[in-house]
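<instruction>
Derive structure tokens from the sequence

<record> Sequence and structure tokens follow
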Amino acid sequence: MNSNLSELQFRRKQILQEMAAIDRLRRGHLSKQFFQSTRQGKTCRQGPYYVLQRWFDGKNLCERVPADQVESIRQGVEGYQRFEQLAQEFAAVSEEITLQADQIPEVKKKPKRRPSQSGSRKPPSS
């Protein structure tokens, strides 16, 4: 077995272990929003308000996140981002393993032999 191939297989196992260790996953993007309002002629900034935005079933969903859940959701979003990175690396490593495993040593082709002209052909039937 090629040492590079064994290294790739070892890395693939490591990636799967890292994926399994991710315990919090939330798809989407967590953003901080502020609102400005005018009170008695003064502009006041209110917030921050946190919103989890994600695509679901072909629709863009926005969900307000309570302040006490922000850290938990942030960890989930970071966990999903890490999972995506690992999935991309897993695909690349697995593809490289497949390419290396499928490599067949080149076999030299024998030159094609032409049929000999002497006596090998039947005379045309009349």
